[in-house]
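Sequence and structure are kept together here, with a separate record for every protein. A complete record is shown below as an example:
=====
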Amino acid sequence: MDIVVVSNRVARAKADEPMTGGLAAALLPAVTDSGAIWVGASGRTRDASAKEPFVEVEALGKGALATLDLPTAHYRGYYEGFSNSALWPALHSRPDLIDTSPQDYASYREVNCIMARALLRFCRGEAMVWVQDYHFLPLGAELRRLGVSQPIGFFLHTPLPGRDTLVAVPHHRELVEAMLAYDLIGFQTDDSRRNFEDYLRRELGLAVTGTVTAGGSGAGTVVRSRQGETRLGAFPITIDTELFASRATRAAARPEVSRLRSSLHGAKLAIGVDRVDYSKGLPNRIRGFAALLDSEPSFRRGVTLMQIAVPSRGDIPAYKALKSEIAHLVSDVNGRFGEPDWTPIRYLNKGYAQSTLAGFYRTAHVGLVTPLADGMNLVAKEYVAAQNPFDPGVLVLSEFAGAARELDAALLVNPHDNAAIGAAIGRALTMSLEERCERFEANMKVLRASSVQLWFADFVRTLDDSAYMALPVVSQLPTVPAAGPRGVEAPVVRFERH
Protein backbone atom coordinates (compact mmCIF):
# COMPACT_ATOMS: atom_id res chain seq x y z
CA MET A 1 0.00 0.00 0.00
CA ASP A 2 1.07 3.62 -0.48
CA ILE A 3 2.16 5.47 2.66
CA VAL A 4 2.02 9.26 2.82
CA VAL A 5 3.83 10.75 5.83
CA VAL A 6 3.10 14.39 6.69
CA SER A 7 5.09 16.69 8.98
CA ASN A 8 5.90 20.36 9.24
CA ARG A 9 9.62 19.68 8.91
CA VAL A 10 11.26 17.24 6.52
CA ALA A 11 14.85 16.10 6.16
CA ARG A 12 17.24 15.08 3.42
CA ALA A 13 20.01 12.54 3.82
CA LYS A 14 22.99 14.89 3.52
CA ALA A 15 26.27 13.78 5.01
CA ASP A 16 27.98 16.00 7.58
CA GLU A 17 25.10 18.44 7.92
CA PRO A 18 23.21 19.10 11.16
CA MET A 19 19.85 17.38 11.45
CA THR A 20 16.92 19.71 12.00
CA GLY A 21 15.28 18.21 15.08
CA GLY A 22 14.48 14.85 16.60
CA LEU A 23 11.36 14.23 14.51
CA ALA A 24 13.27 14.62 11.26
CA ALA A 25 16.18 12.50 12.48
CA ALA A 26 13.82 9.72 13.51
CA LEU A 27 11.64 9.71 10.40
CA LEU A 28 14.40 9.95 7.78
CA PRO A 29 15.68 6.34 7.97
CA ALA A 30 12.18 4.90 8.36
CA VAL A 31 10.73 6.82 5.43
CA THR A 32 13.79 6.16 3.25
CA ASP A 33 13.66 2.42 3.88
CA SER A 34 9.88 2.01 3.60
CA GLY A 35 9.49 3.82 0.28
CA ALA A 36 6.91 6.27 1.61
CA ILE A 37 6.16 9.74 0.29
CA TRP A 38 7.13 12.33 2.89
CA VAL A 39 5.24 15.63 2.57
CA GLY A 40 6.10 18.83 4.41
CA ALA A 41 6.86 22.53 4.19
CA SER A 42 9.70 23.62 1.94
CA GLY A 43 10.92 26.32 4.31
CA ARG A 44 9.94 28.97 1.77
CA THR A 45 6.81 31.11 1.75
CA ARG A 46 4.73 32.49 -1.12
CA ASP A 47 2.24 35.27 -1.68
CA ALA A 48 -1.48 34.66 -1.82
CA SER A 49 -1.81 34.81 -5.62
CA ALA A 50 -1.49 31.04 -6.15
CA LYS A 51 -4.89 29.36 -5.98
CA GLU A 52 -3.54 25.89 -5.24
CA PRO A 53 -0.43 24.74 -3.37
CA PHE A 54 2.50 23.95 -5.64
CA VAL A 55 4.14 20.65 -4.67
CA GLU A 56 7.72 19.85 -5.64
CA VAL A 57 8.75 16.19 -5.66
CA GLU A 58 12.22 14.61 -5.47
CA ALA A 59 13.57 11.14 -4.84
CA LEU A 60 14.29 10.06 -1.26
CA GLY A 61 15.76 6.58 -0.93
CA LYS A 62 13.12 4.11 -2.09
CA GLY A 63 10.42 6.75 -1.97
CA ALA A 64 9.98 10.48 -2.43
CA LEU A 65 10.08 13.83 -0.68
CA ALA A 66 7.32 16.30 -1.53
CA THR A 67 7.50 19.90 -0.31
CA LEU A 68 5.30 22.95 -0.68
CA ASP A 69 5.65 26.66 0.01
CA LEU A 70 3.31 27.95 2.69
CA PRO A 71 1.60 31.37 2.40
CA THR A 72 3.56 34.31 3.75
CA ALA A 73 0.40 35.85 5.20
CA HIS A 74 -0.27 32.83 7.41
CA TYR A 75 3.07 31.16 8.08
CA ARG A 76 4.13 33.20 11.09
CA GLY A 77 0.73 32.94 12.79
CA TYR A 78 0.65 29.19 12.09
CA TYR A 79 4.21 28.38 13.15
CA GLU A 80 5.49 30.96 15.64
CA GLY A 81 2.01 31.91 16.73
CA PHE A 82 -0.39 29.08 17.45
CA SER A 83 1.87 26.04 17.01
CA ASN A 84 4.79 27.24 19.11
CA SER A 85 3.30 29.94 21.32
CA ALA A 86 0.11 28.10 22.29
CA LEU A 87 0.34 24.36 21.63
CA TRP A 88 4.03 23.79 22.38
CA PRO A 89 4.04 25.46 25.84
CA ALA A 90 0.80 23.74 26.84
CA LEU A 91 1.97 20.32 25.66
CA HIS A 92 5.12 20.79 27.76
CA SER A 93 3.13 21.82 30.84
CA ARG A 94 3.91 25.55 30.58
CA PRO A 95 0.48 27.14 30.06
CA ASP A 96 1.87 30.31 31.67
CA LEU A 97 3.85 30.87 28.44
CA ILE A 98 0.84 30.72 26.11
CA ASP A 99 0.84 33.90 24.02
CA THR A 100 -1.37 33.78 20.96
CA SER A 101 -4.21 35.57 19.18
CA PRO A 102 -7.38 34.73 17.24
CA GLN A 103 -5.49 35.63 14.06
CA ASP A 104 -2.82 33.05 14.92
CA TYR A 105 -5.47 30.37 15.28
CA ALA A 106 -7.10 31.37 11.99
CA SER A 107 -3.69 31.06 10.28
CA TYR A 108 -3.10 27.67 11.92
CA ARG A 109 -6.40 26.36 10.56
CA GLU A 110 -5.77 27.90 7.13
CA VAL A 111 -2.37 26.20 6.79
CA ASN A 112 -3.99 22.90 7.74
CA CYS A 113 -6.54 23.47 4.95
CA ILE A 114 -3.76 24.21 2.47
CA MET A 115 -1.83 21.10 3.45
CA ALA A 116 -4.97 18.99 3.08
CA ARG A 117 -5.48 20.23 -0.49
CA ALA A 118 -1.85 19.54 -1.30
CA LEU A 119 -2.22 15.96 -0.07
CA LEU A 120 -5.13 15.14 -2.34
CA ARG A 121 -2.93 14.11 -5.26
CA PHE A 122 -1.37 11.41 -3.07
CA CYS A 123 -4.62 10.11 -1.52
CA ARG A 124 -5.43 7.60 -4.22
CA GLY A 125 -6.24 3.92 -4.23
CA GLU A 126 -5.15 2.22 -1.01
CA ALA A 127 -3.01 5.13 0.20
CA MET A 128 -2.68 5.66 3.94
CA VAL A 129 -1.90 9.05 5.44
CA TRP A 130 0.18 9.31 8.60
CA VAL A 131 0.25 12.81 10.12
CA GLN A 132 3.03 13.81 12.50
CA ASP A 133 2.83 16.12 15.49
CA TYR A 134 1.02 19.14 16.90
CA HIS A 135 1.33 21.38 13.83
CA PHE A 136 -1.43 19.36 12.18
CA LEU A 137 -3.93 18.37 14.86
CA PRO A 138 -6.97 19.14 12.62
CA LEU A 139 -5.46 17.90 9.34
CA GLY A 140 -7.35 14.60 9.43
CA ALA A 141 -10.66 16.43 9.75
CA GLU A 142 -9.74 18.68 6.81
CA LEU A 143 -8.94 15.63 4.69
CA ARG A 144 -12.26 14.03 5.59
CA ARG A 145 -14.03 17.26 4.65
CA LEU A 146 -12.42 17.03 1.21
CA GLY A 147 -13.74 13.51 0.75
CA VAL A 148 -10.70 11.42 1.67
CA SER A 149 -11.93 8.08 3.02
CA GLN A 150 -8.64 6.20 3.22
CA PRO A 151 -7.06 5.42 6.61
CA ILE A 152 -5.56 8.44 8.37
CA GLY A 153 -3.38 8.17 11.46
CA PHE A 154 -1.75 10.71 13.76
CA PHE A 155 1.30 10.51 16.03
CA LEU A 156 2.14 13.05 18.73
CA HIS A 157 5.89 13.36 19.30
CA THR A 158 5.53 15.63 22.34
CA PRO A 159 4.10 14.70 25.73
CA LEU A 160 0.36 15.08 26.25
CA PRO A 161 -0.27 16.75 29.64
CA GLY A 162 -3.23 16.37 31.94
CA ARG A 163 -6.66 17.82 31.27
CA ASP A 164 -6.12 20.77 33.62
CA THR A 165 -3.28 21.95 31.36
CA LEU A 166 -4.90 21.13 28.02
CA VAL A 167 -7.93 23.27 28.75
CA ALA A 168 -5.64 26.33 28.83
CA VAL A 169 -5.23 26.05 25.04
CA PRO A 170 -7.58 28.35 23.14
CA HIS A 171 -10.09 26.32 21.07
CA HIS A 172 -9.00 23.09 22.79
CA ARG A 173 -12.43 21.41 22.39
CA GLU A 174 -12.60 22.21 18.71
CA LEU A 175 -9.10 20.84 18.14
CA VAL A 176 -9.62 17.61 20.07
CA GLU A 177 -12.94 16.98 18.34
CA ALA A 178 -11.15 17.45 15.01
CA MET A 179 -8.52 14.91 16.08
CA LEU A 180 -11.22 12.26 16.38
CA ALA A 181 -11.40 12.18 12.57
CA TYR A 182 -8.19 10.09 12.73
CA ASP A 183 -8.54 6.31 12.70
CA LEU A 184 -5.54 5.90 15.00
CA ILE A 185 -3.89 8.36 17.39
CA GLY A 186 -0.50 7.34 18.75
CA PHE A 187 1.42 8.69 21.72
CA GLN A 188 4.95 8.20 23.01
CA THR A 189 3.85 6.75 26.35
CA ASP A 190 0.84 5.21 28.04
CA ASP A 191 0.82 8.19 30.42
CA SER A 192 0.08 10.52 27.50
CA ARG A 193 -2.56 8.16 26.14
CA ARG A 194 -4.30 8.03 29.51
CA ASN A 195 -4.22 11.84 29.77
CA PHE A 196 -5.95 12.08 26.40
CA GLU A 197 -8.56 9.54 27.46
CA ASP A 198 -9.22 11.52 30.64
CA TYR A 199 -9.78 14.67 28.59
CA LEU A 200 -12.22 12.84 26.30
CA ARG A 201 -14.24 11.58 29.25
CA ARG A 202 -14.30 14.76 31.31
CA GLU A 203 -14.48 17.46 28.62
CA LEU A 204 -16.34 15.77 25.76
CA GLY A 205 -18.32 13.20 27.73
CA LEU A 206 -17.12 10.37 25.50
CA ALA A 207 -16.74 6.76 26.57
CA VAL A 208 -13.33 5.18 26.09
CA THR A 209 -13.93 1.49 25.85
CA GLY A 210 -12.20 -1.84 25.73
CA THR A 211 -8.60 -2.85 25.57
CA VAL A 212 -7.20 -3.69 22.17
CA THR A 213 -3.80 -4.74 20.93
CA ALA A 214 -2.09 -1.75 19.34
CA GLY A 215 0.26 -3.45 16.91
CA GLY A 216 3.13 -4.86 18.91
CA SER A 217 3.19 -1.92 21.28
CA GLY A 218 0.89 -3.13 24.02
CA ALA A 219 -2.61 -2.21 25.16
CA GLY A 220 -4.65 0.50 23.53
CA THR A 221 -8.25 1.68 23.70
CA VAL A 222 -11.11 2.79 21.46
CA VAL A 223 -13.23 5.94 21.54
CA ARG A 224 -16.42 6.31 19.53
CA SER A 225 -17.59 9.76 18.49
CA ARG A 226 -19.90 11.22 15.87
CA GLN A 227 -16.95 10.99 13.48
CA GLY A 228 -16.60 7.25 13.94
CA GLU A 229 -14.19 5.01 15.82
CA THR A 230 -10.67 6.07 16.82
CA ARG A 231 -8.09 3.76 18.32
CA LEU A 232 -5.60 5.14 20.85
CA GLY A 233 -2.23 3.54 21.54
CA ALA A 234 1.33 4.07 22.72
CA PHE A 235 4.14 3.70 20.17
CA PRO A 236 7.44 4.77 21.76
CA ILE A 237 9.75 6.03 19.03
CA THR A 238 13.34 4.85 18.90
CA ILE A 239 16.50 4.94 16.77
CA ASP A 240 18.44 2.64 14.46
CA THR A 241 20.66 1.44 17.29
CA GLU A 242 23.16 -0.63 15.33
CA LEU A 243 23.59 2.10 12.73
CA PHE A 244 24.25 4.73 15.38
CA ALA A 245 26.66 2.47 17.27
CA SER A 246 28.59 1.85 14.05
CA ARG A 247 28.60 5.56 13.30
CA ALA A 248 30.07 6.30 16.75
CA THR A 249 32.85 3.76 16.27
CA ARG A 250 33.83 5.26 12.92
CA ALA A 251 33.61 8.80 14.27
CA ALA A 252 36.62 8.30 16.57
CA ALA A 253 38.92 9.29 13.72
CA ARG A 254 37.03 12.44 12.77
CA PRO A 255 39.12 15.62 13.22
CA GLU A 256 36.52 17.34 15.44
CA VAL A 257 36.37 14.34 17.75
CA SER A 258 40.14 13.98 17.94
CA ARG A 259 40.52 17.67 18.77
CA LEU A 260 37.91 17.38 21.50
CA ARG A 261 39.68 14.47 23.15
CA SER A 262 43.09 16.13 23.07
CA SER A 263 41.68 19.42 24.40
CA LEU A 264 40.45 17.78 27.60
CA HIS A 265 44.00 17.15 28.88
CA GLY A 266 42.86 14.17 30.90
CA ALA A 267 39.68 15.73 32.31
CA LYS A 268 36.40 13.87 31.99
CA LEU A 269 33.63 15.16 29.76
CA ALA A 270 29.91 15.56 30.43
CA ILE A 271 27.80 16.40 27.38
CA GLY A 272 24.37 17.88 26.73
CA VAL A 273 22.86 18.30 23.26
CA ASP A 274 19.58 20.21 23.01
CA ARG A 275 17.71 22.90 21.19
CA VAL A 276 17.47 26.16 23.13
CA ASP A 277 14.02 25.46 24.51
CA TYR A 278 12.48 25.98 27.94
CA SER A 279 11.29 22.36 27.98
CA LYS A 280 14.89 21.09 27.97
CA GLY A 281 15.77 22.28 31.47
CA LEU A 282 19.08 23.90 30.48
CA PRO A 283 19.20 26.50 33.30
CA ASN A 284 18.58 23.76 35.87
CA ARG A 285 21.26 21.58 34.31
CA ILE A 286 23.82 24.37 34.47
CA ARG A 287 22.90 25.13 38.08
CA GLY A 288 23.17 21.43 38.85
CA PHE A 289 26.67 21.27 37.38
CA ALA A 290 27.60 24.36 39.40
CA ALA A 291 26.20 22.69 42.54
CA LEU A 292 28.57 19.77 41.98
CA LEU A 293 31.60 22.05 41.63
CA ASP A 294 30.52 24.01 44.68
CA SER A 295 29.87 21.03 46.97
CA GLU A 296 32.69 18.79 45.71
CA PRO A 297 35.77 20.91 44.95
CA SER A 298 37.68 17.74 44.00
CA PHE A 299 35.80 17.71 40.69
CA ARG A 300 37.14 21.12 39.69
CA ARG A 301 39.59 20.86 36.80
CA GLY A 302 38.62 17.18 36.58
CA VAL A 303 35.43 17.53 34.55
CA THR A 304 34.14 19.79 31.79
CA LEU A 305 30.56 20.19 30.64
CA MET A 306 30.14 20.69 26.90
CA GLN A 307 26.65 22.00 26.23
CA ILE A 308 25.63 22.10 22.58
CA ALA A 309 22.59 24.38 22.43
CA VAL A 310 21.13 24.74 18.94
CA PRO A 311 19.29 28.07 18.42
CA SER A 312 15.54 27.65 17.97
CA ARG A 313 12.51 29.92 17.39
CA GLY A 314 14.58 32.98 18.16
CA ASP A 315 11.79 35.43 17.28
CA ILE A 316 9.52 34.18 20.07
CA PRO A 317 9.98 36.29 23.25
CA ALA A 318 10.15 33.30 25.62
CA TYR A 319 13.05 31.87 23.59
CA LYS A 320 14.92 35.17 23.47
CA ALA A 321 14.67 35.45 27.24
CA LEU A 322 15.82 31.86 27.71
CA LYS A 323 18.86 32.31 25.48
CA SER A 324 19.88 35.37 27.49
CA GLU A 325 19.36 33.52 30.80
CA ILE A 326 21.51 30.57 29.72
CA ALA A 327 24.32 32.79 28.48
CA HIS A 328 24.31 34.65 31.80
CA LEU A 329 24.40 31.41 33.80
CA VAL A 330 27.28 29.97 31.76
CA SER A 331 29.24 33.19 32.18
CA ASP A 332 28.60 33.17 35.92
CA VAL A 333 29.72 29.54 36.40
CA ASN A 334 32.82 30.01 34.28
CA GLY A 335 33.66 33.22 36.10
CA ARG A 336 33.27 31.64 39.54
CA PHE A 337 35.05 28.35 38.98
CA GLY A 338 37.21 28.79 35.86
CA GLU A 339 41.00 28.79 35.81
CA PRO A 340 43.44 30.11 33.19
CA ASP A 341 43.83 26.59 31.80
CA TRP A 342 40.35 25.19 32.52
CA THR A 343 36.87 26.32 31.49
CA PRO A 344 34.11 24.49 33.38
CA ILE A 345 31.44 24.88 30.67
CA ARG A 346 31.97 24.94 26.92
CA TYR A 347 28.81 26.48 25.50
CA LEU A 348 28.26 26.05 21.75
CA ASN A 349 25.33 27.71 19.96
CA LYS A 350 25.34 25.62 16.79
CA GLY A 351 24.33 22.23 15.47
CA TYR A 352 26.50 19.32 14.43
CA ALA A 353 26.02 16.43 12.02
CA GLN A 354 24.86 13.13 13.47
CA SER A 355 28.18 11.54 12.51
CA THR A 356 30.08 14.12 14.58
CA LEU A 357 27.66 13.98 17.51
CA ALA A 358 28.09 10.21 17.65
CA GLY A 359 31.82 10.72 18.22
CA PHE A 360 31.18 13.39 20.87
CA TYR A 361 28.81 11.06 22.71
CA ARG A 362 31.35 8.23 22.69
CA THR A 363 34.00 10.58 24.10
CA ALA A 364 31.79 11.78 26.95
CA HIS A 365 31.89 10.03 30.31
CA VAL A 366 28.44 11.40 31.21
CA GLY A 367 25.42 12.11 29.01
CA LEU A 368 23.08 14.74 30.47
CA VAL A 369 19.48 14.54 29.27
CA THR A 370 17.44 16.46 31.82
CA PRO A 371 14.33 17.96 30.19
CA LEU A 372 11.50 19.25 32.35
CA ALA A 373 9.10 17.49 29.97
CA ASP A 374 9.78 15.50 26.80
CA GLY A 375 7.77 13.11 24.66
CA MET A 376 10.69 10.74 24.27
CA ASN A 377 14.13 12.42 23.74
CA LEU A 378 16.20 10.47 21.25
CA VAL A 379 19.47 12.05 22.44
CA ALA A 380 19.22 9.72 25.44
CA LYS A 381 19.01 6.68 23.17
CA GLU A 382 21.74 7.96 20.86
CA TYR A 383 24.09 8.54 23.78
CA VAL A 384 23.67 4.96 25.01
CA ALA A 385 24.06 3.47 21.54
CA ALA A 386 27.26 5.44 20.95
CA GLN A 387 29.14 4.10 23.98
CA ASN A 388 32.20 1.85 23.98
CA PRO A 389 30.86 -1.45 25.39
CA PHE A 390 34.13 -2.05 27.24
CA ASP A 391 34.30 1.40 28.84
CA PRO A 392 30.83 2.97 28.61
CA GLY A 393 29.74 6.34 29.88
CA VAL A 394 26.72 6.87 32.12
CA LEU A 395 23.40 8.41 31.14
CA VAL A 396 21.85 10.89 33.59
CA LEU A 397 18.21 11.08 32.55
CA SER A 398 15.20 13.14 33.62
CA GLU A 399 12.39 11.06 35.03
CA PHE A 400 10.03 13.32 33.02
CA ALA A 401 11.40 12.26 29.62
CA GLY A 402 9.52 9.53 27.79
CA ALA A 403 12.82 7.68 27.42
CA ALA A 404 12.89 7.14 31.21
CA ARG A 405 10.03 4.62 30.78
CA GLU A 406 12.44 2.43 28.81
CA LEU A 407 16.00 3.33 29.83
CA ASP A 408 15.48 2.71 33.53
CA ALA A 409 19.11 1.62 34.00
CA ALA A 410 20.12 5.26 33.58
CA LEU A 411 20.59 7.47 36.64
CA LEU A 412 17.11 8.96 36.84
CA VAL A 413 16.80 12.44 38.34
CA ASN A 414 14.22 15.09 39.11
CA PRO A 415 15.27 17.88 36.72
CA HIS A 416 13.84 20.51 39.08
CA ASP A 417 16.30 19.47 41.82
CA ASN A 418 19.65 21.13 41.07
CA ALA A 419 21.41 19.35 43.91
CA ALA A 420 20.14 15.99 42.66
CA ILE A 421 21.47 16.72 39.18
CA GLY A 422 24.87 17.59 40.60
CA ALA A 423 24.91 14.49 42.78
CA ALA A 424 24.00 12.27 39.80
CA ILE A 425 26.84 13.75 37.73
CA GLY A 426 29.25 13.09 40.59
CA ARG A 427 28.02 9.51 40.96
CA ALA A 428 28.37 8.91 37.22
CA LEU A 429 31.94 10.23 37.22
CA THR A 430 33.00 7.92 40.06
CA MET A 431 30.99 4.83 39.12
CA SER A 432 32.89 1.57 38.84
CA LEU A 433 33.52 -0.01 35.46
CA GLU A 434 31.48 -3.05 36.48
CA GLU A 435 28.39 -0.98 37.30
CA ARG A 436 28.78 1.16 34.19
CA CYS A 437 28.88 -1.96 32.02
CA GLU A 438 25.83 -3.46 33.76
CA ARG A 439 23.78 -0.32 33.25
CA PHE A 440 24.94 0.01 29.65
CA GLU A 441 24.01 -3.58 28.79
CA ALA A 442 20.59 -3.22 30.40
CA ASN A 443 19.83 -0.11 28.37
CA MET A 444 21.23 -1.61 25.16
CA LYS A 445 19.01 -4.65 25.61
CA VAL A 446 16.02 -2.31 25.47
CA LEU A 447 17.33 -0.49 22.40
CA ARG A 448 18.19 -3.67 20.51
CA ALA A 449 14.66 -4.98 21.02
CA SER A 450 13.27 -2.42 18.58
CA SER A 451 14.24 -0.06 15.78
CA VAL A 452 12.80 2.99 14.12
CA GLN A 453 11.89 0.80 11.13
CA LEU A 454 9.90 -1.54 13.39
CA TRP A 455 8.25 1.46 15.05
CA PHE A 456 7.18 2.73 11.64
CA ALA A 457 5.89 -0.68 10.53
CA ASP A 458 4.08 -1.22 13.84
CA PHE A 459 2.12 2.02 13.54
CA VAL A 460 1.24 1.43 9.88
CA ARG A 461 0.10 -2.12 10.59
CA THR A 462 -2.08 -0.92 13.46
CA LEU A 463 -3.54 1.85 11.30
CA ASP A 464 -4.32 -0.72 8.61
CA ASP A 465 -6.09 -2.88 11.20
CA SER A 466 -7.94 0.08 12.72
CA ALA A 467 -9.26 1.90 9.71
CA TYR A 468 -12.46 1.44 7.79
CA MET A 469 -11.32 0.83 4.22
CA ALA A 470 -13.71 2.84 2.04
CA LEU A 471 -13.87 2.59 -1.74
CA PRO A 472 -11.34 4.82 -3.50
CA VAL A 473 -12.57 8.22 -4.70
CA VAL A 474 -9.87 8.92 -7.26
CA SER A 475 -12.29 10.27 -9.83
CA GLN A 476 -13.45 12.95 -7.40
CA LEU A 477 -10.00 14.24 -6.55
CA PRO A 478 -8.87 17.53 -8.08
CA THR A 479 -5.51 17.78 -9.77
CA VAL A 480 -2.85 19.60 -7.76
CA PRO A 481 0.14 20.97 -9.70
CA ALA A 482 3.47 19.39 -8.90
CA ALA A 483 7.01 19.37 -10.21
CA GLY A 484 9.39 16.46 -9.81
CA PRO A 485 12.86 15.65 -11.08
CA ARG A 486 12.96 16.36 -14.81
CA GLY A 487 9.24 17.13 -14.71
CA VAL A 488 8.11 13.59 -13.89
CA GLU A 489 5.17 12.79 -11.68
CA ALA A 490 5.64 11.58 -8.12
CA PRO A 491 6.79 7.95 -8.07
CA VAL A 492 4.39 5.22 -7.02
CA VAL A 493 5.69 3.83 -3.76
CA ARG A 494 4.47 0.90 -1.72
CA PHE A 495 4.91 -0.28 1.84
CA GLU A 496 5.22 -4.06 2.02
CA ARG A 497 3.49 -5.88 4.85
CA HIS A 498 5.64 -8.35 6.73
